[in-house]
Every structure is written in C-alpha cells, then in structure tokens.
Give the backbone structure.
Amino acid sequence: GSTAWKHVDASGPDNHPIRLFLDLDTNRKQRATFSLSKKLLDACKAALPGGDWHLQKYEGKVLLDWQEFADVDPEVDKSYKLGWFHHPRFDQINTRGIRANLDR
C-alpha cells in the first residue's frame, strides 16, 4: 500500500534546520495491538477499579502496580491470544470478567 508521510521542520545541532519525515501509517498488527491493549486496560480497570493500572501499548501489555499482569497478541484471523503473568494480586481479580469485557 501507499505510505502517508508528514514532514516536520526542526532544529538540529547548532540550531541547524533539519526536516524530519514521519511515516504516519502503522501496520495492521500494530493497530490491532494498540486497540486490543486499550480494551484490555479498560477491562482490567473495570475488574479492579482504583488499581494502579498502566498500559504498554506497543507490547500489548497491561501492568498492575508497575508489574506485568496481562498481555494480548492479535492473530491474522482477527482473534487474539490473551496471556496472564504471575502477579501477587492475580487471585483478587475476576479474569473471566476481563475476558468477557474484552470480547465485547
């Protein structure tokens, strides 16, 4: 497919003007990872409101208390793999509810 480029004028070393070209397209898997990881974060927040949740959207990971809690990996057929990490608070959280919210 075609690539969408955007240029940005900036200052380099010694205030020398430079032009940067940014690729605005992301591949399909990366877009799916971003979207699914955001849905995963929202589902986790619903399962444990007030938790210290964080998102690593490029990796598709959700962190709780800055420790890995879950990750999501999109498949070619638009399904996904949902993984869980060993986390000290894992047993306190309804993971079936997280999966149900993710599948909506």
